Amino acid sequence: MMNTVAASTVTFAQVENVPISNPVYDFFLRAETKGLLPRYSLSMIPWQKHKVVSALKLIRENDSLLSRNEIKILNNFEREFGIIASNRAVVIYSETDTVQVLSSKMFSDYEKLFYHYADSVNNVTVLPLASLDMIDNLNASNDLLMGTAGVRFLER
């Protein structure tokens, strides 16, 4: 009943914090020691996603001070946070993405999505979310397998 009520009302996006466990903070620590993040403090994490993006852009402006390996890591983070385009494979075709997940791209480094559409005004992404947990009971023979599934809608 509660889901029906929530779905029928106007909803607003929430701020997305980048989890403390994300390795981007280790990269920022190295960049900070090199003087590439002068206006940022890593003492107040987690950061909101937009702050992470702006910090990555600032590091890119000074990429001449980075090693080849650090530039590769920066490229990966820029792809992860949507600064540079990545290859995408989708389940549901759109005008902008026609590579299907259920193909040879299933085990590639392509980003896997349910749906993606982008033009000069809109950018809509539907991401799959899933987890599977096995709870092993050592004293009995009744183990538990518990899973959850869902989707995340992003509009940029």
Textual characterization of the structure:
- The chain has helices at 2-8, 24-33, 49-61, 68-80, and strands at 88-90, 111-113, 115-118, 123-135, 144-155.
- With 156 residues, it is of the alpha+beta class.
- The chain folds into 2 domains: 24-80, no CATH class; 88-155, no CATH class.
- The radius of gyration is 20 Å and the shape is globular.
- The two termini are 30 Å apart.
Describe the secondary-structure layout.
Layout: H1 2-8, H2 24-33, H3 49-61, H4 68-80, E1 88-90, E2 111-113, E3 115-118, E4 123-135, E5 144-155
Parallel strand pairs: 1-2
Antiparallel strand pairs: 3-4, 4-5
Output the keywords:
globular; 5 strands; alpha+beta; two-stranded parallel sheet; 156 residues
Give me the strand/helix succession. HHHHEEEEE
The main β sheet shows up as: 3 strands, antiparallel
**Arithmetic mean of pLDDT:** 80
**Percentage of β-strand residues:** 15-25%
Number of domains: 2
Biggest sheet strand order reads 3-4-5
Rg over CA atoms? 20 Å
Q: Which ranges are low-confidence, i.e. pLDDT below 50, for 5 or more consecutive residues? A: none
Backbone shape: globular
- SSE-based structural type: alpha+beta
Strand count: 5
Helix content: 25-40%
- Give the oligomeric state of the chains in this entry, treating copies of one chain as homo and distinct chains as hetero: single chain
Q: Gap between N and C termini, in Å?
A: 30 Å
* Distinct helical segment count: 4
